[in-house]
Amino acid sequence: MSADLQISLVAVAAGVACALVGVFLVLRRMAMMADAISHSILPGIVAGYVLAHGPNLLLGFLGATASGLLTVVLVEALSKGKLRQDAAIGLVFPILFALGVLVVSKYFANVHIDTDAVLYGEIAFAPFDTVNVAGRDIGPKSFWVLAVLAIVNTGFIAVLYKELKLATFDPGLAASLGFRPALLHYLLMALVAVTTVGAFSAVGAILSVALIIVPPVVASLLTERLPRMIALSVAVGALGAVLGHRVAAWSNVSISGMIATVLGILFGGALLFAPGRGLIAQWSRRRAQKVRFATEMLLVHLATHQETAARDIECSLPHLESELGWDREVAARIVGRAERLGLLEREESLLSLTEAGLRQAYLAAER
Amino acid sequence: MIPAISVRDLTVAYDEKPVLWDVDLDIPEGTLSAIVGPNGAGKSTLIKAILGLVPIAAGSIRVFGEPYRTAHERVGYVPQRGSVDWDFPTDALDVVTMGLYGRLGWFGRPGRQERRIALECLDKVGMRDYARRQIGQLSGGQQQRVFLARALAQDAALTFMDEPFAGVDATTEQTIIDTLKALRDAGKTVVVVHHDLDTVPRYFDFVALLNVRLIAAGPTEAVFVPDNLQRAYGGKIAFLHR
Amino acid sequence: MNLIHDLIFDYTLRNVALGSAILGVVSGVLGCFAVLRRQGLMGDALSHAALPGVCLAYMATHSKSPVVLMIGAALAGLIGMAIILLVERRTRIDPGSALGIVLTVFFGFGVVLLTVIQKGNDANQAGLDKFLFGQAAALVSDQVTTMAIVGGAALFVVGLLYKEFKLLAFDTGFAGVLGFRPHFLGGLLTGLLVAAIVIGLNTVGVILMSAMLVAPACAARQWTNRLSAMIGISALVGALAGLSGAIISVLQERVPTGPAIVLLLGAIVAISLLFGSAEGWVWDWIRRRRNRLALPEPSR
Fold first, then answer.
1. What is the mean pLDDT of residues B8-15?
2. Model pTM?
3. Of A203, A339, A366, C258, which shows the fewest CB atoms inside 10 Å?
4. Residues of B with CB below 8 A from C163's CB?
């Protein structure tokens, strides 16, 4: 297996594992918790190092997960009390991170716990750290870690799909049905912590957070249905990983950074062009809506007044301009449009509804 | 006479759904008016649209014959209780003083004069003793009275109140309505979003019945009749009956 | 009184202490508004968003002058802020996700630019990333002067528009009704946050900046119910933590300044939550215990 392919595999596995837990984190409006966890695992890694008297995968993993969960517990405790959630998150993770940095620089100055690497990630080194089973090289260690995480996360969602969905959209109902949303919440948070730990050693803290947050948000711009959102998130995560890695390899820049950048471009594209929720769709819908409302208002106005004595005044174009508060140009455009659609007829400046126009006025008024 | 509020063909939509449809409404100066209608009728949206707080899809709005932008110094507003942050580090006196910020303009600072006016206004609603209480530590009725005092401090010719009687005690309700009647008697215009039909005839002299579109508007005794209420609260309404 | 002598005459200690104290005051004041407006995590997002700005500023000028880098950081921070506000206003994406996206994508792009710069065989670039991770110990007096000017300007604007900012934070709708243009004020206030971040980057660094903004405000809120007092206490807490953190890190071997300041802030917040105000956790606990003792045991 070539080094490039191995890196791609690691990146895709990270993308899939992160996107799966990310969907529920984003839907619960707790995206920044991923950022907090990704930083606050540092003291846990340090603790694992101390306990094992050296680098140890299992103890480091456990320590990191424990301090990730400690973050969740601390944030919940503080935000149930006197602080708001955003302030609680913004307070807890820098303090834990500072603790980690302090211990590292005070007692392990010459040891390899590089706090910068925690941020940047070293995915480029993944192929150098491989697993041997029965004397055969079966690929990068980080790939296997992330692949297992992706399977665990998939299993978690598959088994608890109904409960997760309910607890996310209606925690009150979930509680009353006996689903224990709090327990589910901590389970999910534990998975976020474990996934972040697994991903960050391979791709760095910032990219693991990007992989957790960006794909689900892109998916949420494209669909409203949960199953589709999960599938799309995974697809976006994997696509971002592959594309980012290709571009980075081609231009010889940071792979993690480029994957995050590609994810950002995918987000920008979805934000602008997503059908329905994208900014351009919103903008054109608002324009069309203005024209439609104006037309309907014109029809209703004419319907109300065309049988009355004041018809000659009420239904004349100049009066409409002042009555509906339109300037001449708008009035001409709306009247022209209605005329083209066969909704009204005009003699000189006097307007009258056609049969179709009257029907549409009724429909508009009945709504 | 120019009406205090003049709304022409107002349409407001959130997403695809119109919340207000083709509303025409004149509210005369010097009235104590109610905007009444079922839930989701667009009552709050109507005053928010008048105050420029929500974008309008079509139509025009005049306040004392002017666009809101130039008339805002004559307009007071008491929002729904849920819309402010009750944990905010501020006390009753401070909140009432905010009613004077508009008059002070950009950069102006409240001084002794403003403090005196604010205290007087708190006194008028019976809240002077609570001037230094943090607002979250007041009861719902007391909070509502503080916001009424803030509207008094604005000394506006036209005051909007959004559901001022929701969830308040009887004493507070009486204080509020007495204060509003006093304002009306002093020649001011007051517009209240209201949902308790029983009290409408006793409290208000002008009523606008709303259910997405305007059902009827006019002096209470003329408009607040079973036929109109039936049309506002039940069944669909055809515009041609208007 | 050796310490006071050193504070005045020791070049390094003076700069570190002064710089950290200035940062403490500025972030203490602006942090109050950020916390009250539920923007507690805005600081974290915008400080990360500064990285590509720093890189591009360097690429454009080949200068590592702190002023140049600060301008780059500020521009990138403002662009990040504009994107966050746009997404919050125009879409249903929740604010936390918007922050997270800007944070990670900008930072990731910055890392890409860093590798581009490092490839350029440009000997001058070494240590560019250090600008972001805080090296208070290396502050020079020019930097401290710049920090004082930028921070002073931000505080001046807050002083000028104190009444407007307070109204905006408390009741945005009412600010609009009074004709105060809430969108403009909100953008300006968040923009001032960028000023605090820019002067914080090379003192405490990207990650710890969040605590510089949030912690003093949270601590101060526990001791008072008035905004003006909260701002004053918050500035004081920020300055004290900055000053003492700086002194500790200079006197103690291998204690970096940023973490020292943040851990001190953490301790102050904890004390404030426990003892500040009548609802402090300690008083609350004592009260509840007393009530329980006063009540007779429920009979079964």
1. 80
2. 0.88
3. A366
4. 101, 104, 108-110
